[in-house]
Amino acid sequence: MSKTTDQLLLFPGETGWEIWSGQPGTGFTLHTATEITRASDLGSLPPGELTLLFPVKAITAIPMRVASEDDSLFSDLAALHAERQGLRPDPMAGQLTDQFVIAREGEETSILSVILRDPAEGDLPKRGPKEFDLSARALPLDGSRLNVWKELGRWVFSITQNGQLVYCQATALSSAVPEDSLVREIRLAVIQLSLQGIELAPDHVFFYAPGENPSAGALQGAFTAPVQVAPRPAPVLPEQRSKLLPADVRAARREARRRNIIKLSIAAVALFYLGLIGWFGYGLWKDTQTTNKLLAQATAAEPEGIAYATHIAKWDELAHAIDVNNAPVDILLRIARCIPNNSGLRLRTAEISATEIKLIGEAPQLPAVNQFDLALNKSNDLAFDWSPPAPQQSTRGWEFVITGTVPTTGQP
Question: pLDDT for 51-93, tens place per residue?
């Protein structure tokens, strides 16, 4: 089984940013505690999905009560309430607002509206976080309590009610131990919330003390609730993540998606061309294989072809003797068919060779000789070049000699 990659939390520590690693189910352990106050100066971070927990000084918390149970209306109602207080986040700076339900009472709902200040240069790490949340939501929220701790050199506090974050605020105070000025700011925040109809009465005060010899200072005895001094616990990821997303990170994610789309498109085109080349290559290979097989068959059949050509040549040499068209008896029969009927023409001698026929004969009348010569020349069965008969008169009529030669253009 492959090892699960740890998640990373960037948490604002007492004097600088802290890097925590682990899993939400098993908890987080401190990886590195730095003195760096600018997130962009953190340099190389360990591998893992990164979550940035904004310090309390980066947000404005506005608890409020709305006469609605519809969660979809909370964003618009919170925006109207913030505008009445002169707070209007830049709509081009990303998702800088979020709302968290504190309690539901009948048709009314208590919510905490959070407005993130537009991050300035250096407020975000170089590696874009996957998620964003608030440091005040990453500390224990159980019960009704007041949490006081130090972030990036300033005292901050948060107030919870029934396990839900109601309010948090960063002060400008940086004393070594809590002083009366810090107590006054906490009491003033509680009074302002009560004027808005949000009554808070923490059961415990938790002072997450820095240093080796912690002292609650002015917090001790300032409230009716007991003060507990303890090291700040390890951060935890809230079950309901925030929707905060600064514009720089959103633009970076959009650019990353665009680059991924371009890479996928290039990969798809390359895959298509590789497939096309492979298809043509397979076709070429197949044609080559077929050609090679045909060449092999031709090579194997070459001796038979040579033997066949030799046979045809020898057969052609014997054509004059064995071809039925050249058979002497058949030729004489065809010549006899050219003799005019009842003409008295007869052949005394017929000399037949491979290339020539010589006919010697006689006829009582000269027209019979001419008719015989004309029939020989018109016969389709005797493809010879016939010479004129040149008849000579004799005591018995007319004698003639007709010679037929094989045409020089080819065999008959």
Answer: 999 999 999 999 988 888 888 888 888 888 888 888 887 777 7
Output the pLDDT for position 412.
43
Overall domain count for the chain: 3
**If you write DSSP's letter for every residue of 140-197 in order, what string do you get?**
---SSEEEEEEETTEEEEEEEETTEEEEEEE-S---SS--HHHHHHHHHHHHHHHHTT
225 and 333 together in one domain: no
Give the structural domain span for 120.
Answer: 55-240
Q: What is the pLDDT of residues 149-177, one digit of tens each?
A: 999 999 999 999 988 999 999 999 999 89
Of the three residues 317, 347, 375, the one that is the final residue of a domain is 317
Contact 100, 79 (CB under 8 A): no
Q: Do residues 226 and 124 both lie within one domain?
A: yes
Give the CA distances from residue 187 to residues 100, 192, 195, 222, 312, in Å, rounded to whole numbers and listed in that order: 23, 9, 13, 10, 124
The answer to whether residue 355 scores a pLDDT higher than 80 is yes
The answer to whether residue 138 sits within a structural domain is: yes
Among residues 317, 338, 361, the one where a domain terminates is 317
Please tell me whether residue 46 adopts helix, strand or coil conformation.
coil
